[in-house]
Amino acid sequence: MKNFASIFCFLMIALINHASAFNAEKVNEKVLNVFKKTFPLAQQVSWQEFSDRYMVHFTENNIQVVVDYDKDGNYLQSKRYYQEDNLPINILYKVRKKFSGKKIFGVTELSTEISTIYYIKLEDNQNWTTVKVDAYGSMEVVDEYQKA
């Protein structure tokens, strides 16, 4: 049974790698060139095509990233998923100060050409809290749930 699971995992990885390479071939050259110049260290790259845009998923410096481009290679928006050590210092300071009894569990960063918003998931012994913070440090609690 262990051998079957190992073979199955190997085949799935090979299939995913093949699918990623196949998807990259469909991406128009303008978009691909912009992506390669902007993210030369990207790993585990996979593409999706939509009627009006391309979406690329990848990892860079241990951060999960999703970037949307229009069909001409123009940046539309991005999402990054990471831990507190990648937060800007001013944001980290304000969150730690206001929520001193909570630990930062993870961060989702949403960026466009005109703004960056951070959704910071906090936890303590009893609750999960999501705080929305803008680039200037203005914040609001958007979700709070009790742990089971």
Number of E strands: 8
Radius of gyration: 19 Å
Largest β-sheet summary: 8 strands, antiparallel
How many helices in DSSP terms? 3
- Principal-axis shape equals elongated
Strand order within the widest beta sheet? 1-2-3-4-5-6-7-8
Structure description:
The protein is 30% helix and 43% strand. It is built from three helices and eight strands; from the N terminus they run ααββββαββββ. It has an eight-stranded antiparallel β-sheet. Strand 2 and strand 3 form a beta hairpin. Residues 1-22 have low confidence and may be disordered.
Provide a brief overview of the structure:
By secondary structure, the chain is an alpha+beta fold. It is built from three helices and eight strands.
Describe the structure using short key phrases:
148 residues; eight-stranded antiparallel beta sheet; 8 strands
Q: What's the SSE blueprint?
A:
Layout: H1 2-26, H2 29-38, E1 43-49, E2 53-60, E3 63-70, E4 75-82, H3 89-98, E5 103-111, E6 116-123, E7 127-134, E8 139-146
